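Pasting as-is:
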Amino acid sequence: MVNIVKFLLTGLIGVIAMLTLVNNVSAEVSNSGEATYINGGIGQEEADGIRAKAGDYNLRLYLSEGKLGHSITDVPVTITDKKGNVKLDFASGGPMLFLQMEKGTYKISAQHNGVTLTKSVTVINHRGVNVYLNWKNTAVDVEDEQSKE
């Protein structure tokens, strides 16, 4: 009887551990109709899980703020093609937003704390391109300076 209880407890602990892993890497692959994408990267495990899939996407956005590059979330991101057609209008991107796009030139606009950053990027092959959007000189920089004192 004791062996059966130990066996069941061991199995239960294993199931709980697996569910914890699955829940921690909660970024999901989605399709907007124009692009397949994965968004997230909150917490080390989720960030590692998304980075492991980076090669599957040819446009990779990294969103951060401050001189030290603190990751940020909830950033509205719009991606348009060279004709101005919206390919992705994402309400809450970051800190990593990876997309599989057709070859072409795109304009990326993202807004954080009332400041809009815009970049033009050309996707020419499957290897893709990394785009780093960083809002410098933010309140986070003041906090970082104060913590050094």
